[in-house]
Amino acid sequence: MRKSILAGFTLLFTVALHCQELKTPVSAQKFNNDSTTFRFAVVSDRTGGMRDDVFAEAVEKLNMMQPEFVISVGDLIDGYTEDPNIWTAQWDEFDSLVNRLNMPFYYVPGNHDSSNDLLIKTWHKRHGRDYYHFLYKNVLFIALNTDELKDGGISQKQVDYVKKALDENQNVQWTLIFMHRPLWSYGDAAGYEGIEEALKGRKYTLFSGHHHNYQYQVKNGMDHYVLATTGGGSWMRGPEVGDFDHSYWITMNKEGPKVAHLNLDGIYGKNIVPPEDYADIEILRRGNWLDVDPVVNETKTFDSLKINVRFTNEMERPMTVSGELRPYHGLIFEPHTISVNVNPAADISIPVTVKSKSGLPLDINVINNDTINFELNAGFERENRNPVQLSTSKRLLLDWKHDLKSPSTTITIDGNLSDWNTEDFIEVKNPQYFDEVWDWKGPDDGEFSFATMAD
């Protein structure tokens, strides 16, 4: 009996001693809870082709992430109005979204928010200063109004304000600057050069928006960011080319800001678009590599005509172009598939025949109002990365030789069109130029008709 008790005691003692020797399975790094460390989020353009519910979803995501506060880089409402009923409704809607956040939101104006004197007065009344600074945990935050001047720019008064803020906060750990237009990338800097000069010798990071596609650049040894969108107009062609909805997640510590992109579908690091690829991606994004020569037919109708589709490679690497010219509104195309390689700095042209599918004559004006687009893909290969490929579309522009008739009656410039023959008018239900394509939804947003006469 004694032997059993002794054996049991020895076993228990050995197990206890063994447990005391084991340590907690954790790495040796210190907890990331330094008192100077904090985290906040940055949101980008919501308007300029606003897509419904994207910003609201971003608010929900931010509440999940729980930053200490959120700051914007402008274009919060559509603006561009002098009607107080419109801007009041727009601000009420936006503020209702901001009020869902569990943390403070810092407003920064964009061109849509401050496009005229009435809007900037409303900004002052609702939100306060249109440029300002504040200090948080020894980090200086500076918010600029880059539309203080018409068509973008900063006044000397604003420059002097920023210089004074910098002078009064020389010993801060870091300086973070938020602006809408990336004036630092403009040739004349639109007044920003005075601020840039005052920043020399400081550790700072700059955040901006406005262009709706992501760009990252090191300038003067400091990080400069152009954010993509948080609901604003975008082709949404993916983070690989900088077209995506996101917010920035900034972790601020003694080493400076650590930046991560919070996509609604994932998290990305700052080097999404490598600097060496950005210029070529921009060439593809602009879509100037594709062009379709306009055609002026002898008559208003046709059953077959020829056009030239041209491809221009402005890059210093080969470009591949591919796609299908599908039958469209009674038209067929020969050839109907495109697959070509375009050498660097080369320009090639492919003849395409446009035919009536039924063999019956087609009305050019009807075709123009239906909009015929050629949509093709272009791209390039990259080492150790996915290839880049973007699509663009160019409209098939057709016209016919118009007869300038002499008026049968005297035409009086009085706004009364009763002396014009209504049959001579040409309806235009689909204009051929837009400043922002995504803001035009169809003929309800604008259409017109015109007629011409020779006097």
Explain briefly what this protein structure is.
Helices cover 21% and strands 29% of the residues. By secondary structure, it is an alpha+beta fold.
What does this structure look like?
- With 455 residues, the chain is of the alpha+beta class.
- The chain contains eight helices and 26 strands.
- The strands form seven sheets. Strands 3-2-1-10-11-12 form a six-stranded mixed sheet, with no helix packed on it.
- A hairpin with a 2-residue loop joins strand 11 and strand 12.
Global shape: globular
Question: Which structural class is indicated by helix and strand composition?
Answer: alpha+beta
Helix content estimate: 10-25%
Which residues sit in consecutive blocks of at least 5 with pLDDT less than 50?
1-9
Strand count, sense and barrel status of the largest sheet are:
6 strands, mixed
Count of discrete alpha- or pi-helical segments spanning 4 or more residues: 8
| Major β-sheet strand ordering | 3-2-1-10-11-12
Taking all Cα atoms into account, the compactness measure Rg is: 30 Å
Mean pLDDT: 90
Total strands: 26
Cα end-to-end separation: 130 Å
Beta-strand residue fraction? 25-35%
Give the tags.
globular; disordered N terminus; 6-stranded mixed β-sheet; 455 residues; alpha+beta; single chain; 8 helices
Strand and helix layout:
Elements: H1 2-21, E1 38-43, H2 54-65, E2 70-72, H3 84-98, E3 105-106, H4 117-126, E4 132-136, E5 139-143, H5 156-168, E6 174-178, H6 192-198, E7 204-208, E8 215-219, E9 222-226, E10 246-253, E11 256-263, E12 266-268, H7 275-286, E13 290-292, E14 295-297, E15 301-302, E16 304-312, E17 319-324, E18 331-334, E19 337-342, E20 347-356, E21 362-363, H8 364-370, E22 373-380, E23 388-395, E24 398-400, E25 426-428, E26 448-450
Helix pairs in contact: 5-6
